[in-house]
Amino acid sequence: MNKLPLYEKVGYAMGDAGANLVWRGALAYLAVFYTDTFGISAAAAAMLFLVVRLSDGVTDIIMGMIADRTQSRFGKFRPWILYSAPFLGLFMVLCFTTPNFSETNKLIYAYVTYIGLTLAYTVSNVPYSALMGVMTPDDTQRTKLSGFRFAGAFTGGLLVMGFLPDLVAYFGGGDNAKGYQLTMYLFASLLIALMVITFVSTKERVIAPASEQGCLKSELFDLTKNLPFIILPLLSTTLFFYYRDLYSGLFFALVMAAMTVVIKKLLNKNKQNLTGSQRDMVDLLTNKPWLVLLGIGFLTMMFNGIKYGVIAYYFKYHVADELMAGQYFIALLIVSIFGALATGKLAEIMGKRNLFIASLLLSGLLTTAFYWVPSNNIVAVFTFGCAAEFFAAMMPTLFFSMLGDSADYSEWKNKRRATGLIYSAGTFVQKTGGGFAGALVLVVLAGYGYNGMDELTINHALPAMQLLMSWIPAAFAFLGAALMLIYPLTPAMTQKITEDLAIRRSNV
Q1: Which of 200, 209, 368, 384 counts the highest number of beta carbons within 10 A?
Q2: In angstroms, rounded to a whole number, what is the distance separating the alpha carbons of residues 458 and 181?
């Protein structure tokens, strides 16, 4: 009864294929575009990535609340996928446009367009991710749907990362600035078409009771009063990450101590005296599966983001064949499609938690091998890279499927469901992890003296690229495997929650 038809799984996958024309393109090429084509320094670009992540912490939460409280004839989440598509395409083009500005104005332009891109992505992708949680109440079907989703995501990434260098060369004719812009026009048109397919082909089936819906205007106003408690932790983390000195460390420690006190007060408060947005936050903070997944999502995005963020540099300077990066991306993403599609079956055999731990350990171990692989041994580079990527592809597939399980857990425990807010954690840690990963790549390169406009600095930065392809990302994978050991939802418990909710919903 809960089995999804094939056309709906494929249609849903088309949405992430479209989104990844943006996400994979920005993640893999925006850093090298900023430093080597637009002419922004690595240090300035690193700060840009971090500052933009600060705004994401607020917008993702707001969008999750808005989506949960949306009422339309198309459902809660599907309308946002349709209406955001033109804006997402527009900012995709603007981000890769190079106006002839001064150095300061270039940086301002980069901030405005990149913030616009991430905001449009939030409006699109928070509802898109949450849609998975309401298309079916069955956790097994959600895992398979997540596999289709990420097969679509990797296909979209395949188009960008596999063919972008060649398309830039073709359209630009030696002018990279022109080539990037015209290529993005092509990708933006395709993105809009794919989003429309997702909107038309999907259906929302899990409907929260009307009594759970609060007044959006009053709850957003309430949220604005609590914005410092969202912004300050992100700001302190960003400053400590970027500056890594005594003052930023003290500020980070003070903010974390204050947040601990505030959270304890909120948790001890009588639930009858909480506003709707505060109740949502309490539900999240007492949802152990969601809290574990929040950390896991960040660590896996750091792992994958660092690996993808350094590839363009690695092939340009270590391998001395810039266009081979496109071939490497193609190989990785083809393997990723198989990894994502295999996840559902393997999860049935091993369980989601065990499969997640295995994928983190195996992908991390294979990634460390890059430290010893000579850059001129192309067969070994591709072999280890593809083997690690097969297991890495399972991480986001399992992560978003398990977010649906944590939404079920929250409804089962608290008799309230905030699917959009729970899934906003998915896009938040994606963008935050991706932003910190991109920034870490640039911080490490800058620490080794890298300057994309000065060839004399390249040789000094080669060891940094080698570390960024191996030990640095692998460390995040191993941390993720350790954290997943405390994930509490076993297959038996997940099955019980699904059955209990089915009975409860049938009695409404």
Answers
A1: 384
A2: 27
Angle of the 42-68 helix axis to the 227-243 helix axis, nearest 10: 160
209 falls within a domain: no
Q: What is the pLDDT of residue 7?
A: 93
Which residue bears the tokens 């500005």?
Answer: 101
Residue 127, Cβ neighbours under 10 Å: how many?
A: 31
Structural contact between residues 435 and 333, judged by C-beta atoms closer than 8 angstroms: no
Separation between Cα atoms, residue 163 and residue 326, nearest integer Å: 6
Residue 294 in any domain: the answer is: yes
Domain assignment of residue 208, yes or no = no
Angle at 439 between CA 284 and CA 442, to 5 degrees: 165
In degrees and rounded to multiples of 5, residue 204 shows phi and psi of -95, 125
Candidates 455, 430, 330; CA nearest to 16 is: 430
CATH classification at residue 242: 1.20.1250.20
Alpha-carbon distance of 389 to 209, in angstroms, equals 41
Closest among 23, 29, 31, 22 to 50, alpha carbons compared: 31
Q: How is 205-259 classified by DSSP, letter by letter?
A: -----GGG---HHHHHHHHHHTHHHHHHHHHHHHHHHHH-SHHHHHHHHHHHHHH
**In order along the chain (508 residues), what is the average pLDDT of each group of 10 residues?**
84 91 71 83 80 72 81 88 93 88 88 90 89 83 86 82 80 86 91 94 77 57 62 67 71 80 74 66 77 88 85 80 78 88 88 93 93 84 91 90 83 73 72 75 78 70 83 93 91 82 71
Cβ 76 vs Cβ 68: under 8 Å: yes
| Residue positions counted in the chain | 508
Q: For residue 327, what are the domain limits?
A: 6-201+214-506
Cα–Cα distance measured from residue 31 to residue 48, given in angstroms and rounded to the nearest whole number? 10
Alpha-carbon radius of gyration of the chain: 22
> What's the domain count of the chain?
1
Burial 88-106 (b: 16+ CB within 10 A, else e): bbbbbbbbbebeeeeeeeb
Q: pTM above the 0.70 mark?
A: yes
In the prediction, which pLDDT does 448 show?
A: 78
Q: Is residue 496 part of a domain?
A: yes
pLDDT at 236: 73
In a 10 Å sphere around its CB, with 0-12 CB exposed, 13-18 middle and 19+ buried, how is residue 247 labelled? exposed
Question: How confident is the model at residue 476, as a pLDDT?
Answer: 94
CA distance 233 to 57: 10
